[in-house]
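Why show two proteins at once? Because comparison is the fastest way to build intuition. When a single record is shown, students tend to memorize it. When two are placed side by side, the eye starts asking what differs. So, the first record is below.
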Amino acid sequence: MGGFRFVLPVLLFSVAACSSPAPPPPPAPPADCARYESGPVEPALGHRAFVLTLTNCGTAARAVSGYPDVQVLGPEGEVLDVWVERGSSYMAIDPGPGTFALAPGKSLVTVVSWRTR
């Protein structure tokens, strides 16, 4: 009885281990490095607020005092004339300004809140 004979070519290959040097470690942050992050805007009865976090990402303690400066920018990046009042709001209680020695890796938070008039 005749039959068909299939011959499947087999392709043999070897994969050389791909090795590349490890990427260099990121450079160390400067001693005076600071990182600012803001959280999402939280709404409450016509008021709005977000948490602003300052983290000392440097290698030395950082002196921080007073309140953060606030500027509100318009759609073209222009500084808008807004009234800034420091103190407690509907969204947060203000303990008052202070002076802190912020150690490396530590953070301070503040709440920025607003409402329309």
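Second record. Ask yourself what differs from the first in the token line.
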Amino acid sequence: MSQDIWINLPVKDVERSTAFFNEIGFHAESFGNERAKLAIGQTTILLFPDAAFERFTGSKTADTSHSAEVIFSIGAKSREEVDAFIQKVELAGGSIFGKPSESDGWMYGAGFSDLDGHRWNLLYMDESKMPKS
């Protein structure tokens, strides 16, 4: 069985979302307003217009203004990378729902929503400070 995974994500405007993701430092390639491919590390996220997504899933898209359907977590290499990334998100028009902060003395992260309200988390884990079991 193949170990590849693609995540399909509904968006209101494929070209606008593609521009947003490129602006924050991801690699996104648009194929008109029909779909786009977003590559993050080894993960591929395909952006589809809401109507196309609803057609092939057989259900309505989640109303991200009232609920979250998923959170995408991305590893960062440093606290500075988290801070710089979140600044890019703000400049590109994303919303910050979790300002950069430390948690449990060894994790540093922040949360943001993209243009369609999908939630993302950027997290740096300082393994040298991780509690030992």
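One difference worth noting in the second protein: The two ends are 35 Å apart (CA to CA).
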